[in-house]
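User: Some background: our group keeps a shared notebook of sequences we're curious about, and every so often someone picks one and asks for a predicted structure to add to the entry. Today it's my turn. The entry only has the sequence so far, pasted here. Could you supply the structure so I can complete it?
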Amino acid sequence: MVTINLTLNNFSELPALLDVFGCFGNDYEYTTQGIFRRKIPPACSICSTPMVHNGYNPHTKQGLGEIIIGRYKCSNCGSTHEEDHSFWEDLKALLYDSFNDFFKLLRYHNVSYEGISDIMDFIYPRSRSTILRAFYKEMEQETVPFSENIHMVHYDEQHPKEGRCQKYRLTLLDAKTQTTIADELFEDKNPETIKEFLQKNLDPSEPVFIVTDFDKRYPDILKEIFGDKLVHQYCLMHLNKLIVSDFPKNTTIEQELLKYRLLNIFYNRENEIKFLEKLLSEELNVITNEEKHQEWSKKAKKEFNQFRHKLKLKRRRKKENLPLNSLEKAKDNFDKLMQNIRTYDETIQKRLWMINKHWLNLTLFHYLPGAPATNNPIESYYSKSLKTDNKKQFRTDKGIENQIKLTQMRRLNLLKKPQKSFLELFRLFNPFKL
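Assistant: Of course. Here's the predicted structure to add to the notebook entry:
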Protein backbone atom coordinates (compact mmCIF):
# COMPACT_ATOMS: atom_id res chain seq x y z
CA MET A 1 0.00 0.00 0.00
CA VAL A 2 1.14 3.57 -0.70
CA THR A 3 2.94 5.25 2.20
CA ILE A 4 1.09 8.35 3.41
CA ASN A 5 3.09 10.71 5.63
CA LEU A 6 0.66 12.81 7.66
CA THR A 7 0.99 16.11 9.48
CA LEU A 8 -1.22 17.71 12.12
CA ASN A 9 -2.92 19.67 9.33
CA ASN A 10 -4.00 16.68 7.26
CA PHE A 11 -4.22 13.94 9.90
CA SER A 12 -8.03 13.94 9.74
CA GLU A 13 -7.93 13.55 5.95
CA LEU A 14 -6.47 10.02 6.03
CA PRO A 15 -9.72 8.31 4.82
CA ALA A 16 -9.92 10.66 1.81
CA LEU A 17 -6.21 10.15 0.99
CA LEU A 18 -6.61 6.38 1.18
CA ASP A 19 -9.60 6.62 -1.15
CA VAL A 20 -7.53 8.62 -3.67
CA PHE A 21 -4.21 6.74 -3.44
CA GLY A 22 -5.47 3.30 -2.36
CA CYS A 23 -4.89 1.79 -5.81
CA PHE A 24 -1.11 2.50 -5.71
CA GLY A 25 1.47 0.04 -4.41
CA ASN A 26 4.11 0.24 -1.68
CA ASP A 27 6.65 1.85 -4.03
CA TYR A 28 4.71 5.16 -3.92
CA GLU A 29 4.56 7.78 -1.19
CA TYR A 30 2.69 10.93 -0.27
CA THR A 31 5.17 13.17 1.55
CA THR A 32 4.60 15.60 4.42
CA GLN A 33 5.00 18.41 1.84
CA GLY A 34 2.02 16.96 -0.07
CA ILE A 35 4.11 15.57 -2.97
CA PHE A 36 2.95 12.37 -4.64
CA ARG A 37 5.87 10.40 -6.13
CA ARG A 38 7.75 7.12 -6.10
CA LYS A 39 10.01 6.41 -3.16
CA ILE A 40 12.76 5.22 -5.49
CA PRO A 41 12.84 7.17 -8.77
CA PRO A 42 12.39 5.07 -11.93
CA ALA A 43 15.04 4.39 -14.56
CA CYS A 44 15.39 6.86 -17.41
CA SER A 45 13.31 5.83 -20.41
CA ILE A 46 16.09 7.10 -22.74
CA CYS A 47 19.38 5.80 -21.26
CA SER A 48 18.07 3.47 -18.50
CA THR A 49 20.12 5.32 -15.85
CA PRO A 50 18.44 5.55 -12.42
CA MET A 51 16.83 9.00 -12.05
CA VAL A 52 16.75 11.26 -8.96
CA HIS A 53 13.97 13.32 -7.33
CA ASN A 54 13.80 16.74 -8.93
CA GLY A 55 11.09 18.86 -7.30
CA TYR A 56 7.46 18.78 -8.39
CA ASN A 57 4.78 20.20 -10.68
CA PRO A 58 1.49 21.54 -9.27
CA HIS A 59 -1.80 20.66 -10.94
CA THR A 60 -4.59 23.02 -9.93
CA LYS A 61 -8.32 23.01 -10.53
CA GLN A 62 -10.00 26.23 -9.49
CA GLY A 63 -12.60 25.72 -6.79
CA LEU A 64 -11.48 22.16 -6.04
CA GLY A 65 -7.82 22.15 -5.02
CA GLU A 66 -4.25 21.41 -6.06
CA ILE A 67 -2.19 18.24 -6.23
CA ILE A 68 1.62 18.27 -6.25
CA ILE A 69 3.15 15.63 -8.53
CA GLY A 70 6.76 14.54 -8.14
CA ARG A 71 9.29 15.12 -10.90
CA TYR A 72 12.44 13.09 -11.73
CA LYS A 73 15.65 13.94 -13.56
CA CYS A 74 18.29 11.77 -15.19
CA SER A 75 21.82 12.60 -13.93
CA ASN A 76 23.27 11.10 -17.10
CA CYS A 77 21.31 12.57 -20.05
CA GLY A 78 19.50 15.37 -18.21
CA SER A 79 16.01 14.34 -19.34
CA THR A 80 13.10 14.94 -16.97
CA HIS A 81 10.02 12.94 -16.24
CA GLU A 82 6.85 13.65 -14.24
CA GLU A 83 5.03 11.02 -12.25
CA ASP A 84 1.72 9.81 -13.72
CA HIS A 85 -1.15 12.00 -12.48
CA SER A 86 -4.03 10.36 -14.33
CA PHE A 87 -5.66 9.63 -10.95
CA TRP A 88 -6.15 13.39 -10.52
CA GLU A 89 -7.95 13.58 -13.86
CA ASP A 90 -10.03 10.54 -12.89
CA LEU A 91 -10.95 12.19 -9.61
CA LYS A 92 -12.18 15.32 -11.42
CA ALA A 93 -14.01 13.19 -13.97
CA LEU A 94 -15.78 11.34 -11.15
CA LEU A 95 -17.16 14.63 -9.86
CA TYR A 96 -18.07 16.00 -13.29
CA ASP A 97 -19.79 12.73 -14.27
CA SER A 98 -21.90 13.05 -11.14
CA PHE A 99 -22.73 16.63 -12.16
CA ASN A 100 -23.78 15.38 -15.60
CA ASP A 101 -26.10 12.79 -14.04
CA PHE A 102 -27.52 15.61 -11.92
CA PHE A 103 -28.08 17.75 -15.04
CA LYS A 104 -29.88 14.88 -16.81
CA LEU A 105 -32.20 14.36 -13.86
CA LEU A 106 -33.04 18.07 -13.67
CA ARG A 107 -33.63 18.25 -17.42
CA TYR A 108 -35.92 15.22 -17.15
CA HIS A 109 -37.99 17.31 -14.72
CA ASN A 110 -37.96 20.20 -17.25
CA VAL A 111 -35.65 22.51 -15.29
CA SER A 112 -34.18 25.09 -17.70
CA TYR A 113 -30.43 25.41 -18.27
CA GLU A 114 -30.52 28.82 -16.61
CA GLY A 115 -32.37 27.30 -13.66
CA ILE A 116 -29.78 24.52 -13.33
CA SER A 117 -27.03 27.16 -13.41
CA ASP A 118 -28.74 29.06 -10.57
CA ILE A 119 -28.95 25.81 -8.54
CA MET A 120 -25.29 25.03 -9.21
CA ASP A 121 -24.32 28.42 -7.73
CA PHE A 122 -25.13 26.82 -4.36
CA ILE A 123 -22.97 23.76 -5.09
CA TYR A 124 -20.21 24.41 -7.62
CA PRO A 125 -20.78 27.29 -10.06
CA ARG A 126 -21.38 26.24 -13.66
CA SER A 127 -22.49 28.62 -16.41
CA ARG A 128 -25.59 28.00 -18.51
CA SER A 129 -23.50 27.38 -21.66
CA THR A 130 -21.18 24.96 -19.83
CA ILE A 131 -24.16 22.97 -18.58
CA LEU A 132 -25.77 22.94 -22.04
CA ARG A 133 -22.57 21.67 -23.71
CA ALA A 134 -22.03 19.01 -21.05
CA PHE A 135 -25.65 17.85 -21.30
CA TYR A 136 -25.63 17.63 -25.12
CA LYS A 137 -22.32 15.75 -25.09
CA GLU A 138 -23.68 13.25 -22.57
CA MET A 139 -26.93 12.72 -24.48
CA GLU A 140 -25.04 12.07 -27.74
CA GLN A 141 -23.14 9.28 -25.97
CA GLU A 142 -26.23 7.71 -24.41
CA THR A 143 -27.71 4.65 -26.09
CA VAL A 144 -31.19 3.54 -25.05
CA PRO A 145 -32.04 -0.15 -25.53
CA PHE A 146 -35.04 -0.56 -27.83
CA SER A 147 -36.97 -3.73 -28.44
CA GLU A 148 -38.58 -3.93 -31.86
CA ASN A 149 -40.49 -7.03 -30.73
CA ILE A 150 -42.35 -5.36 -27.88
CA HIS A 151 -45.83 -6.80 -27.53
CA MET A 152 -48.51 -4.08 -27.68
CA VAL A 153 -51.81 -4.98 -26.04
CA HIS A 154 -55.03 -3.42 -24.77
CA TYR A 155 -56.44 -4.46 -21.40
CA ASP A 156 -59.91 -3.61 -20.10
CA GLU A 157 -62.79 -4.94 -18.03
CA GLN A 158 -66.54 -5.15 -18.57
CA HIS A 159 -69.18 -5.81 -15.93
CA PRO A 160 -72.05 -7.85 -17.40
CA LYS A 161 -74.72 -9.55 -15.28
CA GLU A 162 -75.89 -13.16 -15.27
CA GLY A 163 -79.41 -12.74 -13.96
CA ARG A 164 -78.84 -10.91 -10.69
CA CYS A 165 -75.24 -12.10 -10.35
CA GLN A 166 -72.51 -9.62 -11.17
CA LYS A 167 -69.79 -10.98 -13.46
CA TYR A 168 -66.44 -9.56 -14.49
CA ARG A 169 -65.15 -9.86 -18.03
CA LEU A 170 -61.38 -9.46 -18.44
CA THR A 171 -60.09 -8.95 -21.97
CA LEU A 172 -56.72 -8.68 -23.73
CA LEU A 173 -56.56 -7.45 -27.32
CA ASP A 174 -53.52 -7.41 -29.60
CA ALA A 175 -52.92 -3.76 -30.62
CA LYS A 176 -51.32 -4.54 -33.98
CA THR A 177 -53.59 -7.30 -35.30
CA GLN A 178 -56.74 -6.24 -33.36
CA THR A 179 -57.28 -9.91 -32.50
CA THR A 180 -58.41 -11.19 -29.13
CA ILE A 181 -55.66 -12.67 -26.98
CA ALA A 182 -57.95 -13.66 -24.10
CA ASP A 183 -61.54 -12.98 -23.04
CA GLU A 184 -62.79 -14.62 -19.83
CA LEU A 185 -65.53 -14.21 -17.23
CA PHE A 186 -64.78 -14.24 -13.50
CA GLU A 187 -66.76 -14.09 -10.29
CA ASP A 188 -64.63 -11.20 -9.03
CA LYS A 189 -61.83 -8.92 -10.22
CA ASN A 190 -59.55 -8.64 -7.19
CA PRO A 191 -55.81 -8.07 -7.79
CA GLU A 192 -55.01 -11.79 -7.59
CA THR A 193 -57.58 -12.58 -10.29
CA ILE A 194 -56.13 -9.92 -12.59
CA LYS A 195 -52.56 -11.17 -11.94
CA GLU A 196 -53.45 -14.76 -12.76
CA PHE A 197 -55.28 -13.68 -15.92
CA LEU A 198 -52.34 -11.60 -17.19
CA GLN A 199 -49.67 -14.17 -16.25
CA LYS A 200 -51.67 -16.90 -17.98
CA ASN A 201 -52.03 -15.01 -21.29
CA LEU A 202 -48.87 -12.86 -21.50
CA ASP A 203 -45.20 -13.79 -21.15
CA PRO A 204 -43.81 -11.83 -18.12
CA SER A 205 -40.25 -12.31 -19.44
CA GLU A 206 -40.98 -10.37 -22.66
CA PRO A 207 -41.34 -6.56 -23.01
CA VAL A 208 -44.97 -5.42 -23.13
CA PHE A 209 -46.69 -2.14 -24.01
CA ILE A 210 -50.10 -2.23 -22.34
CA VAL A 211 -52.91 0.35 -22.50
CA THR A 212 -55.35 0.59 -19.58
CA ASP A 213 -57.73 3.04 -17.97
CA PHE A 214 -56.95 4.90 -14.72
CA ASP A 215 -57.79 2.14 -12.23
CA LYS A 216 -55.46 2.83 -9.27
CA ARG A 217 -54.66 -0.87 -8.82
CA TYR A 218 -53.14 -1.39 -12.27
CA PRO A 219 -49.68 0.21 -11.81
CA ASP A 220 -48.75 -2.01 -8.84
CA ILE A 221 -50.23 -5.14 -10.41
CA LEU A 222 -48.49 -4.65 -13.76
CA LYS A 223 -45.18 -3.66 -12.15
CA GLU A 224 -45.21 -6.80 -10.01
CA ILE A 225 -45.78 -9.02 -13.06
CA PHE A 226 -43.57 -7.39 -15.72
CA GLY A 227 -41.04 -5.34 -13.70
CA ASP A 228 -38.74 -3.21 -15.87
CA LYS A 229 -40.12 -4.81 -19.05
CA LEU A 230 -43.38 -2.88 -18.64
CA VAL A 231 -44.43 0.14 -20.71
CA HIS A 232 -47.73 1.31 -19.22
CA GLN A 233 -49.83 3.75 -21.29
CA TYR A 234 -52.96 5.35 -19.85
CA CYS A 235 -55.90 5.68 -22.26
CA LEU A 236 -56.30 9.28 -23.45
CA MET A 237 -60.01 8.84 -24.19
CA HIS A 238 -60.61 7.76 -20.60
CA LEU A 239 -58.79 10.92 -19.54
CA ASN A 240 -61.07 13.02 -21.76
CA LYS A 241 -64.12 11.40 -20.16
CA LEU A 242 -62.77 12.30 -16.72
CA ILE A 243 -62.19 15.90 -17.83
CA VAL A 244 -65.75 16.21 -19.16
CA SER A 245 -67.12 14.78 -15.90
CA ASP A 246 -65.30 17.51 -13.96
CA PHE A 247 -67.61 20.16 -15.46
CA PRO A 248 -71.35 20.62 -14.86
CA LYS A 249 -73.79 19.40 -17.51
CA ASN A 250 -75.03 22.93 -18.21
CA THR A 251 -71.79 24.87 -18.54
CA THR A 252 -71.29 28.55 -19.15
CA ILE A 253 -69.37 29.64 -22.25
CA GLU A 254 -66.36 30.35 -20.00
CA GLN A 255 -66.52 26.87 -18.46
CA GLU A 256 -66.93 25.28 -21.89
CA LEU A 257 -63.86 27.14 -23.13
CA LEU A 258 -61.78 25.90 -20.18
CA LYS A 259 -63.06 22.35 -20.75
CA TYR A 260 -61.92 22.40 -24.36
CA ARG A 261 -58.56 23.83 -23.37
CA LEU A 262 -58.07 20.77 -21.16
CA LEU A 263 -59.26 18.49 -23.95
CA ASN A 264 -56.83 20.32 -26.25
CA ILE A 265 -53.79 19.09 -24.27
CA PHE A 266 -53.53 15.83 -26.20
CA TYR A 267 -56.09 16.23 -29.01
CA ASN A 268 -56.34 19.09 -31.48
CA ARG A 269 -59.41 21.11 -30.44
CA GLU A 270 -58.17 24.46 -31.77
CA ASN A 271 -61.26 25.00 -33.99
CA GLU A 272 -63.63 24.61 -31.04
CA ILE A 273 -61.48 26.91 -28.89
CA LYS A 274 -61.47 29.68 -31.51
CA PHE A 275 -65.27 29.43 -31.86
CA LEU A 276 -65.76 29.60 -28.06
CA GLU A 277 -63.36 32.54 -27.73
CA LYS A 278 -65.45 34.43 -30.31
CA LEU A 279 -68.63 33.64 -28.36
CA LEU A 280 -67.00 34.75 -25.12
CA SER A 281 -66.17 38.15 -26.61
CA GLU A 282 -69.78 38.52 -27.81
CA GLU A 283 -71.08 37.64 -24.35
CA LEU A 284 -69.57 40.82 -22.92
CA ASN A 285 -72.17 42.86 -24.85
CA VAL A 286 -75.19 41.16 -23.21
CA ILE A 287 -73.91 40.02 -19.82
CA THR A 288 -75.30 43.11 -18.02
CA ASN A 289 -78.89 42.29 -19.04
CA GLU A 290 -79.92 39.01 -17.38
CA GLU A 291 -82.92 38.33 -19.66
CA LYS A 292 -80.95 38.98 -22.86
CA HIS A 293 -77.99 37.03 -21.49
CA GLN A 294 -80.08 33.89 -20.84
CA GLU A 295 -81.63 34.07 -24.30
CA TRP A 296 -78.23 34.66 -25.90
CA SER A 297 -76.65 31.76 -23.94
CA LYS A 298 -79.21 29.27 -25.27
CA LYS A 299 -78.63 30.47 -28.82
CA ALA A 300 -74.80 30.46 -28.41
CA LYS A 301 -74.75 26.90 -27.04
CA LYS A 302 -76.95 25.71 -29.90
CA GLU A 303 -74.60 27.35 -32.43
CA PHE A 304 -71.59 25.73 -30.78
CA ASN A 305 -73.21 22.27 -30.77
CA GLN A 306 -74.04 22.65 -34.47
CA PHE A 307 -70.47 23.77 -35.21
CA ARG A 308 -69.06 20.81 -33.27
CA HIS A 309 -71.40 18.43 -35.12
CA LYS A 310 -70.26 19.77 -38.50
CA LEU A 311 -66.61 19.15 -37.57
CA LYS A 312 -67.48 15.60 -36.55
CA LEU A 313 -69.34 14.93 -39.83
CA LYS A 314 -66.44 16.38 -41.80
CA ARG A 315 -64.01 13.96 -40.13
CA ARG A 316 -66.34 11.05 -40.76
CA ARG A 317 -66.67 11.87 -44.46
CA LYS A 318 -62.89 11.92 -44.75
CA LYS A 319 -62.64 8.82 -42.52
CA GLU A 320 -60.34 10.67 -40.16
CA ASN A 321 -59.96 10.42 -36.40
CA LEU A 322 -59.62 13.37 -34.09
CA PRO A 323 -55.96 14.39 -34.63
CA LEU A 324 -53.48 14.00 -31.79
CA ASN A 325 -51.13 16.84 -30.88
CA SER A 326 -47.37 16.35 -31.10
CA LEU A 327 -45.49 15.84 -27.84
CA GLU A 328 -44.12 19.38 -28.03
CA LYS A 329 -47.57 20.89 -28.65
CA ALA A 330 -49.16 18.84 -25.86
CA LYS A 331 -46.49 19.99 -23.39
CA ASP A 332 -46.91 23.61 -24.49
CA ASN A 333 -50.72 23.47 -24.06
CA PHE A 334 -50.37 21.83 -20.65
CA ASP A 335 -47.78 24.33 -19.43
CA LYS A 336 -50.04 27.25 -20.37
CA LEU A 337 -52.85 25.77 -18.26
CA MET A 338 -50.51 25.14 -15.33
CA GLN A 339 -49.41 28.78 -15.34
CA ASN A 340 -52.94 29.82 -14.35
CA ILE A 341 -53.83 26.80 -12.21
CA ARG A 342 -54.60 28.85 -9.10
CA THR A 343 -57.43 30.65 -10.93
CA TYR A 344 -59.38 27.43 -11.58
CA ASP A 345 -61.86 25.57 -9.39
CA GLU A 346 -60.44 22.97 -7.01
CA THR A 347 -61.75 20.09 -9.17
CA ILE A 348 -59.90 21.38 -12.24
CA GLN A 349 -56.73 21.96 -10.21
CA LYS A 350 -56.82 18.34 -9.02
CA ARG A 351 -57.29 17.12 -12.60
CA LEU A 352 -54.28 19.13 -13.82
CA TRP A 353 -52.11 17.83 -10.97
CA MET A 354 -53.24 14.30 -11.83
CA ILE A 355 -52.18 14.82 -15.47
CA ASN A 356 -48.85 16.24 -14.27
CA LYS A 357 -48.26 13.23 -12.02
CA HIS A 358 -49.01 10.71 -14.79
CA TRP A 359 -47.48 12.67 -17.70
CA LEU A 360 -45.04 9.89 -18.61
CA ASN A 361 -47.79 7.25 -18.71
CA LEU A 362 -49.96 9.55 -20.83
CA THR A 363 -47.27 10.21 -23.48
CA LEU A 364 -45.44 6.88 -23.86
CA PHE A 365 -47.15 6.21 -27.20
CA HIS A 366 -45.01 8.99 -28.72
CA TYR A 367 -41.85 6.96 -28.15
CA LEU A 368 -42.75 3.68 -29.85
CA PRO A 369 -43.74 3.67 -33.55
CA GLY A 370 -47.27 2.41 -34.00
CA ALA A 371 -48.08 2.39 -30.29
CA PRO A 372 -51.75 3.13 -29.44
CA ALA A 373 -52.78 6.11 -27.28
CA THR A 374 -56.23 4.85 -26.37
CA ASN A 375 -58.22 1.72 -25.57
CA ASN A 376 -60.71 2.49 -28.35
CA PRO A 377 -60.20 -0.87 -30.13
CA ILE A 378 -61.17 -2.84 -27.04
CA GLU A 379 -64.12 -0.53 -26.35
CA SER A 380 -65.26 -1.11 -29.92
CA TYR A 381 -64.82 -4.84 -29.43
CA TYR A 382 -66.97 -4.69 -26.30
CA SER A 383 -69.70 -2.69 -28.04
CA LYS A 384 -69.87 -5.23 -30.87
CA SER A 385 -69.60 -8.40 -28.80
CA LEU A 386 -71.68 -7.49 -25.74
CA LYS A 387 -73.50 -4.17 -25.78
CA THR A 388 -74.52 -2.51 -22.53
CA ASP A 389 -77.24 0.03 -21.89
CA ASN A 390 -76.02 1.78 -19.91
CA LYS A 391 -57.43 9.33 -21.81
CA LYS A 392 -40.89 22.51 -21.51
CA GLN A 393 -41.70 24.04 -24.05
CA PHE A 394 -39.01 22.98 -26.46
CA ARG A 395 -37.44 25.23 -29.00
CA THR A 396 -35.46 22.76 -31.11
CA ASP A 397 -35.87 19.26 -32.51
CA LYS A 398 -32.75 18.24 -30.60
CA GLY A 399 -34.35 19.33 -27.34
CA ILE A 400 -37.41 17.17 -28.06
CA GLU A 401 -35.22 14.18 -28.99
CA ASN A 402 -33.19 14.57 -25.80
CA GLN A 403 -36.33 14.79 -23.69
CA ILE A 404 -37.69 11.64 -25.33
CA LYS A 405 -34.40 9.86 -24.70
CA LEU A 406 -34.41 10.99 -21.05
CA THR A 407 -37.92 9.66 -20.63
CA GLN A 408 -36.90 6.32 -22.14
CA MET A 409 -33.88 6.22 -19.84
CA ARG A 410 -36.10 6.91 -16.84
CA ARG A 411 -38.50 4.16 -17.88
CA LEU A 412 -35.60 1.71 -18.26
CA ASN A 413 -34.20 2.75 -14.86
CA LEU A 414 -31.02 4.19 -16.43
CA LEU A 415 -31.22 7.40 -14.38
CA LYS A 416 -29.92 5.83 -11.21
CA LYS A 417 -28.96 7.29 -7.86
CA PRO A 418 -25.26 8.21 -7.55
CA GLN A 419 -22.88 5.95 -5.65
CA LYS A 420 -21.42 8.99 -3.89
CA SER A 421 -23.15 12.24 -2.97
CA PHE A 422 -21.67 15.62 -3.92
CA LEU A 423 -20.55 16.10 -0.31
CA GLU A 424 -18.65 12.80 -0.37
CA LEU A 425 -17.03 13.66 -3.70
CA PHE A 426 -16.02 17.15 -2.59
CA ARG A 427 -14.55 15.62 0.59
CA LEU A 428 -12.01 13.73 -1.57
CA PHE A 429 -10.54 17.09 -2.58
CA ASN A 430 -10.15 18.35 1.03
CA PRO A 431 -6.48 17.26 1.37
CA PHE A 432 -5.60 19.26 -1.74
CA LYS A 433 -7.34 22.54 -0.89
CA LEU A 434 -5.31 25.65 -1.68
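Suggested note for the entry: Confidence is low (pLDDT under 50) at residues 389-393. The first helix runs from residue 14 to 21.
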